[in-house]
Design brief:
CATH superfamily: Farnesyl Diphosphate Synthase
Number of strands: 2
Largest sheet: 2 strands, antiparallel
Strand content: under 5%
Oligomer: single chain
Strand order of the largest sheet: 1-2
Shape: globular
Length: about 325
């Protein structure tokens, strides 16, 4: 059974509660429409996994400070902006069971809202002269964009190999979790060596996190997105990449042709899911996910041992056993 986030966040529960007020203040605007949208965003916030990584990393590295709240806000502003922009790019009308910003206020406003969130993060960092935190988070922004564009480039030919897949998810997903862990450690005054260990830990957890997301596409759990959505969007994820590498040329041509030309058909999605299952794609992806979680645990134990480290280790279990 997956661990509860309430148990995991126990060492920083008070700080997380304070952060929620801090973050609400950071997105307020005098523009009525914008303030209304910000209220909607805050109200439907998710589990705040990334800010939790920030606070636990800070606590593990020496203790939560005022700088930690700035780091967590930067991460959450960036993450929220990327989700708003992603929904526009993917033409998605839902996010976590709620209408997306573009569904309610259309694309133009959604793009501007994402820009506003990014700008708020920049202003906050500059006003507080937190230039190292800004460097860490800005690098993640750059990598998220590069990862998304690399995925789009490769998806056109459906020729992604396993090493390219890891690079894409390292940039798209893991970069932000690694930035959360590194910025948390930095906010606590940790040495450069310790900050880099936290960065590596976040990257390893982030890759495992994304592989878990990829597995959802082929499962039966209700995870807040339709089954086969990655297939429909022609995304080459690890289970499919492995299956295509372990079939004959005829099967490979057939599956790629289906995905290229008929990926939105329910019967085609069902056929691709069966193919991936039959070729052992899910078993292989699960093994790879477990390899990255093992690396993350090893990295974490190089840092030290305390209650917050224990919670970070529990986070590894949480992201790989979660149901959505």
């Amino acid at each position: 059974m997956a661990l509860s986030l309430d148990i995991i966040k126990k060492p920083v529960a008070r700080e997380i509660d304070e952060f929620e007020k801090y973050f609400r203040g950071s997105v307020k605007s005098n523009v009525v429409l914008l303030d209304k949208i910000m209220f909607y965003i805050v109200k439907r916030k998710g589990k705040q996994v990334r800010p939790l990584f920030v606070f636990l990393s800070a606590m593990a590295a020496g203790g939560v400070t005022e700088r930690t709240h700035t780091a967590a806000s930067l991460i959450e502003l960036l993450h929220t902006a990327s989700l708003v922009h992603d929904d526009v790019v993917d033409e998605s009308l839902e996010r976590r069971g709620f209408f997306s910003i573009n569904a309610l206020w259309k694309n133009k406003i959604a793009v501007l809202v994402g820009d506003y969130l990014l700008a708020q993060g920049l202003i906050m960092a500059v006003d507080k002269e937190e230039f190292n935190l800004l460097r860490i988070v800005s690098k993640a922004v750059k990598e998220i964009s590069e990862g998304e564009l690399l995925q789009i480039e490769k998806a056109r030919r459906l020729d992604i190999k396993e090493d390219i897949y890891y690079e894409i998810i390292r940039q798209k997903t893991a970069s932000l979790i690694s930035a959360a862990c590194e910025s948390g450690a930095s906010s606590a005054g940790a040495s450069e060596e310790i900050c880099l260990l936290f960065r590596r830990f976040g990257e390893e957890v982030g890759i495992a996190f994304q592989i878990k997301d990829d597995l959802f596409d082929y499962g039966v759990d209700d995870v807040g997105k339709p089954l086969g959505i990655d297939i429909k969007e022609k995304k080459m994820t690890l289970p499919l990449i492995y299956a295509l590498q372990n079939c004959n040329d005829s099967e490979k041509r057939h599956i790629i042709n289906l995905i290229k030309n008929r990926s939105k058909e329910k019967k085609v999605i069902a056929e691709v899911i069966r193919f991936v299952n039959d070729k052992g794609g899910l078993i292989y992806a699960t093994q790879k996910m477990e390899e990255f979680t093992a690396k993350a645990r090893k990295t974490l134990r190089q840092i030290g041992s305390n209650e917050a480290i224990d919670s970070l280790e529990a986070m590894i279990q949480y992201v790989t056993e979660r149901k959505k």
